[in-house]
């Protein structure tokens, strides 16, 4: 969670692996979906925001 908070604070790119698919997004904010924590990321190629529930993420990595 600390790494995701840092990514949001510093506007870092994050690689998220969810259900076998990799998503690379710019971390925008942490939020909740129902009672579950989630991270909202901006897809640089399309400009769309995607929400990823943390329980659904298999792994993530901050990118420099």
Explain this structure:
The protein has 64 residues and is mostly beta strands. The protein has one domain: SH3 type barrels. Helices cover 14% and strands 56% of the residues. The chain has 1 helix and 5 strands. It has a 5-stranded antiparallel beta sheet with strand order 4-3-2-1-5. A hairpin with a 6-residue loop joins strand 3 (36-42) and strand 4. The longest helix is centred in the first third of the chain and has 9 residues, at 2-10. The two termini are 18 Å apart. The relative contact order is 0.29. The model has no long low-confidence stretch (mean pLDDT 95).
Features:
single chain, 64 residues, mainly beta, SH3 type barrels, 1 helix, 56% strand, globular
| Uncertain residue ranges | none
Q: Name the shape in a single word.
A: globular
Q: Work out the strand percent.
A: over 45%
Classification by helices and strands: mainly beta
Q: What is the CATH topology?
A: SH3 type barrels
Main sheet properties: 5 strands, antiparallel
Quick one: CATH class? Answer: Mainly Beta
**What is the CA-atom radius of gyration, in angstroms?**
11 Å
**Largest sheet, spatial ordering of strands:** 4-3-2-1-5
**Helix and strand pattern:** HEEEEE
Task: Count the beta strands.
Answer: 5
Span between termini: 18 Å
Mean pLDDT, to the nearest integer, reads 95
Question: What is the level-2 CATH architecture name?
Answer: Roll
Helix content: 10-25%
